[in-house]
Amino acid sequence: MTGDAAGGRLLGILITFRRPRELALMLQRLADSERPVDRLVVVDNSPTADAGQLVERYRGRGRAAEYVAAAENLGPAGAVALAMGRLLPDAADDDWVVLFDDGEPPGTEELAEMHDFALRMRATDPRLGAVGGVGATFDWARGRVVRVPDHRLDGPVPVDYIGSGQLPLYRVRAVRAVGVFRPELFFGFEELEYGLRLRAAGWSLYVDGDRWRAGRRLLGRLDVAGRPTVGLAETTWRDYYRLRNLVAILLGAGRRRVAVRVSLLVGLAKPLVNAPRQPGRSLRRLRLNWRAVRDGWSGRLGRTVEPDPGPAGEPAGAAVRSA
Asked: From the CB of residue 127, how many other CB atoms can be counted at a distance below 10 Å?
């Protein structure tokens, strides 16, 4: 089955980074999907011959795909921006850009169900910008993502952004209106920034509350917001990017007071409060947070903290480039 003029084509983006097993499974699921994508762009942030061969094997099953070997590690934000730029010139306004996470392959029916949901929402809301499996709202007063409560999971649920790996389908008309992902974010809250940008431009985002509620019942809890914690986990490069990008997003939206609040409470106060109980961990977090806050306020974005891959390509620690 392929897209038609009424429903729009599905244009897929898949980002990978030294995960051949996950990539192989993901491509197999996409090839077996009840509603396969009409075109797939695979961006490899650490190109290998194995990844290219896996995409070639996917093409051998009659699927349209393009393998893009990134010249450097662009992070998810830069890689999605690159892929969007390749897809948009030949896309129609009613096509859909769908983002895949190679660590969360969808079931064979999930993409078809999400596409059906997108078409239903487009028919009822002409300003539909995106749909997805799981999302959240954003509290502009506190500068934090807020979990949608269970009692609101009934039918279509408006959200401010759609989480990573949750099959977001972005309407090409909306993508053209607001532009592609911000590549300079590199990693962390790139989906949040994009959702907030769509919302600010008047586009709507929805998740299917009934499916989301069923998922919560099955797994106990399924959301992208998270909850504030008291103690400190071990510091990694991911913490730097999330804080830096959140500050940058708030400043870009003209929310300087909220950016100050996040910088002081999340960046500085939390490590200091935990210093008596976790002195070593607090000091490491404080140093990285200070760097994140400084870079967020000064607009020093891009890949400024180098991801440190673990044994299986799983990021472990943080190696900071010289300022």
From this structure: 13
